[in-house]
Amino acid sequence: MPVDFSGTWNLVSNDNFEGYMVALGIDFATRKIAKMLKPQKVIKQDGDSFYIHTTSSFRDYLLEFKVGQEFEEDNKGLDNRKCKSLVTWENDKLVCVQTGEKKNRGWTHWLEGDDLHLELRCENQVCRQVFKRA
User: Fold this and answer.
1) What element of type H or E holds 33?
2) Which residues contact 46 (CB under 8 A, 6 or more apart)?
3) Is 120 helix (H, G, I), strand (E, B) or coil?
């Protein structure tokens, strides 16, 4: 049985978000606003089916997927690119590989105690975020 990511999570640390956004090609003004935000994630998990709703005072982003099934992801409101995404389990980690314009793009989610970790990757940049259970 996979780990259960379900819950409400608040951002508490955000390392190298600027570098990650630059790698995505996000404009200066949007980067400055995004760096000040403290988003909240609501994750609903039913086995291998996920619903992840990330909200902030600036933008909302909704991601729904089933582990092991490739899907087209529209990153509207983020970097406005479309990509093919595939999420798989690697032990107790959710690993997403995104194929599109940007190289080495994807993310990894895992739990450590009451902390939700998120590593965001794009080209040669890695952003590490930590969320606490609300």
Assistant:
1) helix 28-36
2) none
3) strand
Measure Cα distances from 20 to 49, 66, 67, 86 in Å.
27, 25, 25, 20
What's the CA angle centered on 129, arms 124 and 130, to 5 degrees?
Answer: 155
Q: Record the pTM.
A: 0.92
- pLDDT tens, position by position, 37-88: 899 999 999 999 999 999 988 788 889 999 999 999 887 666 767 889 999 9
Query: Backbone phi, then psi, for 21, in 5-degree steps?
Result: -65, -40
For residue 112, what are the contacts with CB-CB under 8 A and spacing of at least 6?
none
Strand order of the β-sheet with 49-55 is 60-66, 49-55, 40-46, 7-15, 125-133, 115-122, 105-112, 93-99, 82-90, 71-74
Cβ atoms of 9 and 43 within 8 Å: the answer is yes
| Cβ neighbourhood burial of 53 (10 Å; 0-12, 13-18, 19+) | middle
